[in-house]
Here is the input.
Amino acid sequence: MSELSLVPLGDGAVRFPVPAEVDAAALLERLRAWPGVRDAVVTETHAAVSFDPAAPPVLEPAALLGLLDDVCRDRGRGSPREVAIKVRYGGEDLAAVAAAAGLSPGEVVALHVGRSYEVRLIGFLPGFAYLGGVDPRIVLPRRPAPRPRVPAGAVAIAGPYTGIYPMASAGGWHLIGSAVDFLPFTAEAGAELRLGDRVRFVPVGP
Amino acid sequence: MDPILEVVSVMGLATVQDAGRPGRMHEGIPPGGALVPELFGRANQAVGNPAGAPAIEWQGAITVMACEAPLVLATDEGRPWVAAVGERFTLEPSPSSAVRYLAVAGGLDVPEVLGGRGTLLVARLGGLSGRALRRGDRLSVGERPARDVIPPVARVGSPAAASTWAPEGPIRVVPGPDAERFSAASLPLLLSSCYRVSPLGDRTGTRLVGPPLGRCDADSGAPTPMVRGAIQVPAGGEPIVLGPDHPTTGGYPVIAVVLSADHGRLAARRPGAEVRFTAVTMEAAGRLAREGRAPTERS
Here is the structure.
């Protein structure tokens, strides 16, 4: 990258695009440690930092480009944390997902279990991790109308992501199971999963 | 006995709020904080509390009573009074603000959770057991600040401290960051139209009713970082201005972002109130931020 498009998000934050090769976890840590930065959020396409509008940090495009170069080189160097999460498959939408994908429910489960996923971003709800790496055969658009209430612990898929609802909320993803003995978010510890973690799902009986 | 503030009755949403939970957006935890920082700050200042002390934010009407020991109370009107044990005070909604604040000298003594004491309803944490206040709740009160704020009798009823803060008038925005995802007519339409506050809003965002803004892409679905004040435009075209408990990421494009100094001015507007926007440059926004912010707005 030779130029960086640094755009304001109001007077208290700026946003810039991040290249796909970046080590998102390393980028997040470096941005959070930047003097004057109060909050940093890194998604698959962008990063944003928030600050006190009366005392904005010095964020020169050249310095940020250098930082992005550093964290692109870092990618793949660290060993990500591996997390295994037990799932009781059989959510409300499993049959509909199977029908839409032209598969049996058992095949959908096998495809969901058979991958290792990466935490690509955290957002939407406290502790909600977007896990990338879903098998293309079960990539589906969100439900046309969100459900008013998805229960906490629901394991769901939408587009290229899978995830676990950390708390009951409205939601438009397809529900295919529920997590067992895993809380994505607690008031004591905050979010359980972090950017870059690798997640595997382990099926358990009914 | 330790002093207690009892909620005798409550109509509408009332929660404990403070200066927020900065530094945890990467965990999906929104910044939180008072909907109207200026009024929250005024109530705390009136009872001699530090700027971010936990206080009650309420929408409708609330009746409170001091238990065990007298309390010094103040609302956003800025006039402290002594509440004798057992005496009930019914606090009405304000014609000029959608939410009001009640501070008690010493602050509400609720536990710190993940760096803040305010209520985050979606995660059921903070405040009183992570929930809205209801009839019969008993809130512990912290130690009274050293400064004696109880005014001499003669000063009771004197006007609140002069303030230039007023919710009326245009809301200032910095255009962007997703200009390319809107039709060319959208930003001029946003800046020339009159929107109204929808009754459907809450602490996650203020929904506006008015001319829909045209977008030139479908929902890409790729989430990007969000901030308080971001004006998101869903497919229907009617804008949503994100509030203190906003999702930390979102997939809708953002046409402009409200200046920090105007977050409270927007959040104070009641359903049906007019909202007009005016654009400022980043340079002007930075100057305003350095010059114009009251200390109570800092978190």
